[in-house]
Amino acid sequence: MYNFGEGQIVEGFKNHPEVPVFDLADGRAMLLAFFKYPSENEIHQFRSGKNFEIRFTEIGGVIMISVKVGTLKWMDMPYSPHLSENLTKFEAPGYGGLALTLALADAVTGEIKSIRMLVLSEKFARRLLETAGAKKQEAFDMEAYKEAIAGINRRYTTKEIVGLSRDYCKISE
C-alpha cells in the first residue's frame, strides 16, 4: 500500500491514467482516484462530511468495485486479490470493520489533493474478503484477467455494474 500525505507530490502518480484504483491489504483497504486537474468541487467531494458508498459484484470472474463519492458520478474498477501484495488474511478485522483510505490524486502533477479515513462495515468487509479469498484460490492469468476486464467494459456501463451489486456499504457523515 501507499504511504503519502495530502499535498505531497508522488513521482509515480505523475501522468497517471485517469482511473480509480482499489487495493486490499491485511486489515485495511485503499481507494485511490486519479483525476486530471481535479476541480475544487471534486476535491471537496472527497473530503470528510460527504457521503460515500462502495459496492462490489463479481462479473465474468472479475471482482468489480463501484464507488460513489459525495455528489460525483459512480466510478467502477476491477479488483483481483492476486495483485494485492500485502493481503494474506481473508477475514474482517475483529474490531468491527475494515479501514479504508480514500485518496484523490491529480493524474497530471501527481499531487495528493485529499485523504480521508473511513471504516467499512463488518458485514461488507466480511463479504468482500470472503469473495477475495475464494478468488485467490483460483488460478490467475494476467492476460485472461485483462481480456475479462475489456469484455466487461464493452458489455456493461458503470450504472449497470452498480445495479448488479448486492453487497454495499453506505457512509453518511
Structural features, described:
The longest helix is centred in the C-terminal third of the chain and has 15 residues, at 122-136. This protein is 25% helix and 35% strand. It contains four helices and eight strands. The protein has one domain. The chain is α+β, with helices and mostly antiparallel strands. The protein is globular. The strands form two sheets. A four-stranded mixed β-sheet has the order 1-2-6-7.
Over all CA atoms, what is the radius of gyration? 15 Å
Shape: globular
Query: What is the number of beta strands?
Result: 8
- Judged by helices, strands and strand pairing, the structural class is alpha+beta
Q: What's the SSE pattern?
A: EEHEEEEEHHHE
Uncertain stretches of 5 or more adjacent residues: none
Number of separate helices: 4
Distance between the termini: 25 Å
Keywords:
173 residues; alpha+beta; four-stranded mixed beta sheet; four-stranded antiparallel beta sheet
Draw up the topology in text.
Blueprint: E1 20-25, E2 28-35, H1 40-46, E3 52-59, E4 62-69, E5 75-79, E6 97-106, E7 112-121, H2 122-136, H3 142-155, H4 158-164, E8 167-171
Give a quick precis of the structure.
The protein has 173 residues and is α+β, with helices and mostly antiparallel strands.
